[in-house]
Amino acid sequence: MVSPQKDPVPSARTCPVTHNPIANPTPENHPSLAHLPTAPTSASALIQDRLSKVLAYRPVGRWAIACRFYRDQAAARQAHAQGLDSLAPEAVLAAHALRPKALYFLTMDHAVGKAWTMIVQPCEGGEDAVVVEVDRELEIVLGKLKNLWTPRQSVKVEGIAFESPEFIVRIGSVAVGSTSRGLLIQAEYRPETTPPSEQHQPRLRALLRTLLKGVPEVSPTEIDSALGVTVSEPEGTTAEELDAIGTEYQSVRLPRDRITKSHEAYQFFKLFRTRSIL
């Protein structure tokens, strides 16, 4: 007599060794971004004043970014996984494979007409992620695919941008719905003034520290945290740190030998996730 065959158990996706951002974490934020979750509303005006009146930066217009978080519809698959307990340890692997994927959709006003997504796939040992530049129309498509991707939360950053002959600085308030999530500052070099890689991060950190020093209700410890600086990781950029950042970019399928707007988008994706904003 032939034994009845059992339905195949979905296998867990194994994280590729070189594509696992969880297994090889680098500092929480890249030094071009600083998030101050406890900064009062008045801090924005103070920093803008410092930029324009003390450092002679010129305001160049409005700055805004928006990021929406989606989950795939995994309820049916999760319910199926719960029925596999009798197949342990295979059931454990199956449950891993059936965890929902996440999709993040980002637009930046200073990158006109462009958008980016990051798709995060849970896998055995962590998660696998990829960052891709897409058409803005994808957001309309996602709105029509609610049976596949469910919108969960969205974050908006709204503020103003300033520039000097060397740097561009953007500062804005962070909000999830009607809830304030502090202040976000971004600093970057103008394309014609980008220094050698070993000087890139220390100079951005120095600029941000100058802007943030003495902001009311923001402690020096919070500033260090915002800049990704710890006692064991001084502000100088070592070859090991550069290599770690390059490896992290590579883990989300971005080139490690040059910086693009896709790398900038990844910085925002990572900040919103690590700070539990989304």
Automatic annotation (TrEMBL):
| Known partners and oligomeric status | Component of the Mediator complex.
For region Disordered, the annotated ranges are: 1-32
Q: Where in the cell is it found?
A: Nucleus
Please give the InterPro entries that the UniProt record associates with this protein: Mediator_Med20
Q: Which GO MF terms are attached to this record?
A: transcription coregulator activity
What is the first-listed, main subcellular location in coarse terms? nucleus
One GO biological-process annotation of the entry reads: regulation of transcription by RNA polymerase II
Stated name of the protein: Mediator of RNA polymerase II transcription subunit 20
Show the GO cellular component annotation of the record. Answer: mediator complex
